[in-house]
């Protein structure tokens, strides 16, 4: 099974995360940040990843350290669970509608970290959540997972819908990318022979 358990403790956060890439979408999330819990729950469901997460962070300051550090740990878990990436499809993409919002995402498990983040979130907050932290989360994820991730907002007006659409879309893109291509299950999907 392609699983990973990561524990990371700093002066700002104490995180425990378990990921199963070949799951059913079951999740138990307690990040200390309600909006992020919601996003990660639907990320797990739409990606069909089993995800367990607890985080004790310095949210009395704000949610920045919690959100960024969870992105770091989730990326590390993906990288560890994927191993040498033998047999994966490597690429995945999705155009996902959510009411007035339409989000395109594309993923390459390339071994190279790159984030293209073309989302225009109209408000600074959704509830108490700082919307600028969405980009910080995905920057952290792409760095530690060593993947290329593109977000393109094709339509959207509601901040909640834009962010939720982005998390659902990228989850489905990752689901496609990490899937095993049974026809080429013993091959690295690269002419370099390594990802």
Report a brief summary of the structure.
The protein has 195 residues and is of the alpha+beta class. The protein is built from four helices and ten strands. The strands form three sheets. A four-stranded mixed sheet has the order 1-2-4-3, with helices on one face. The chain has a four-stranded mixed sheet with strand order 5-6-10-7, with helices on one face. The protein has a two-stranded antiparallel sheet with strand order 8-9.
Structure description:
- The chain is α+β, with helices and mostly antiparallel strands and 195 residues long.
- 34% of the residues lie in helices and 31% in strands.
- The chain is built from four helices and ten strands; from the N terminus they run E-E-E-H-E-H-E-E-E-E-E-H-E-H.
- The strands form three sheets. A four-stranded mixed beta sheet has the order 1-2-4-3, covered by helices on one side. The chain has a four-stranded mixed beta sheet with strand order 5-6-10-7, with helices on one face. Strands 8-9 form a two-stranded antiparallel ribbon.
- Helix 1 links the parallel strand 3 and strand 4.
- Helix 1 runs parallel beside helix 4 and helix 2 runs parallel beside helix 3.
- The protein is globular.
- The chain starts with a strand and ends in a 17-residue tail after the last helix.
- The mean pLDDT is 97.
């Amino acid at each position: 099974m392609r699983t990973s358990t990561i524990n990371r403790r700093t002066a700002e956060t104490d995180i425990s995360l378990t990921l199963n890439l070949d799951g059913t979408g079951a999740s138990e999330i307690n990040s200390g940040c309600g909006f992020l819990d919601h996003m990660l729950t639907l990320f797990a469901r739409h990606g069909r990843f089993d995800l367990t997460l607890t985080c004790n962070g310095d949210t009395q300051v704000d949610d920045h350290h919690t959100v960024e550090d969870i992105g770091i740990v989730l990326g590390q878990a993906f990288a560890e669970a994927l191993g040498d990436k033998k047999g994966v499809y490597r690429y995945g993409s999705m155009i996902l509608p959510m009411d007035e919002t339409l989000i395109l995402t594309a993923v390459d498990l390339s071994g190279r970290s790159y984030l293209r983040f073309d989302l225009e979130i109209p408000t600074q907050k959704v509830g108490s959540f700082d919307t600028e932290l969405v980009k910080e989360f995905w920057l952290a994820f792409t760095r530690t997972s060593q993947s290329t991730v593109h977000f393109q907002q094709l339509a959207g007006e509601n901040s909640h819908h834009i962010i939720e659409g982005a998390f659902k879309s990228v989850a489905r893109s990752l689901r496609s990318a990490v899937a095993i291509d049974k026809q080429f299950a013993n091959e690295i999907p690269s002419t370099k022979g390594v990802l």
